[in-house]
Design goal:
Layout: E1 7-18, E2 21-29, H1 32-40
Antiparallel strand pairs: 1-2
């Protein structure tokens, strides 16, 4: 994810219930200005 400029924001512990158990989700984000800079390259 870092290759495209995404930053790790945190983990939502046991956020999703799927196939009879809870799963955690890692959250990543990117600012629009950073996305536009990467998109030009």
């Amino acid at each position: 994810m870092a290759k495209v400029g995404l930053k790790y924001e945190g983990t939502l512990r046991e956020k999703v219930f799927f196939k009879d158990k809870f799963h955690s989700m890692k959250m990543h984000s990117i600012l629009k200005k950073d996305w536009l800079i990467n998109d030009k390259n």
